[in-house]
C-alpha cells in the first residue's frame, strides 16, 4: 500500500484519486489558518514555486482538530490562503487527522506501515513522499520549509 491507493476530496467537493500524482514528489501538510505556524504558508509557497516545474506538489489538508484553528468553510479557508499568502498549490476539504474519524489517507500516514507513523501532534505536520508514493520523511509542525528544503530538493532532483 502507498499514497496512490487513496482518494480524497478537494475544496470544490470533487473526488481526487491520488494516483494522478504518480511520478511526482509530494509534501502532504495538515494546516490551519489561525495557528501560530500559519505563516509557514509563505515558505511552502516559495518551495512550491521553486520545485513545481520539476514534479513537486504540495497537498494542503486544512484541519480544525487542534484548538479549532481552522474555522470557516473550505471557501473561506481557500480565500484566506490565496489572498494573504498567494498560495497556488492544491487544497482539499477540511479533514480530521487523528482518531477513528480521521481521513483514511492520514490513518495510513500515521500508521506503522508508512514508516513514519504516530499521532499528529499539531497543525503543519508534513510528510514527504517520493515519486513511487513512499513516505520518506516526516517534519514536525515547527520545522519551517527553509529548514527541510535541502531534503525536498534531494528527493525532487533524484
**At the first level of CATH, what is the class?**
Alpha Beta
pLDDT < 50 runs, ≥5 residues: none
SSE succession: EEEHEHHEEH
Number of strands: 6
* Radius of gyration over all CA atoms, rounded: 14 Å
Name the CATH homologous superfamily. Answer: Glutaredoxin
The major β-sheet equals:
4 strands, mixed
Q: DSSP strand (E) fraction?
A: 15-25%
Q: Count of helical segments?
A: 4
Quaternary state of the chains: single chain
Q: Could you characterize what this model shows?
A:
The chain is an alpha+beta fold and 158 residues long. It has a single domain (3-156), classed as Glutaredoxin, CATH 3.40.30. The chain is built from 4 helices and 6 strands. The chain has helices at 40-51, 74-85, 104-109, 145-156; strands at 7-9, 15-17, 25-31, 56-62, 126-129, 135-139. Helix 1 (40-51) packs parallel to helix 4 (145-156). It starts with 6 loop residues before the first strand and ends with a helix. The mean pLDDT is 96.
Give the helices and strands, then pairings.
Blueprint: E1 7-9, E2 15-17, E3 25-31, H1 40-51, E4 56-62, H2 74-85, H3 104-109, E5 126-129, E6 135-139, H4 145-156
Parallel strand pairs: 3-4
Antiparallel strand pairs: 1-2, 3-5, 5-6
Helix pairs in contact: 1-4
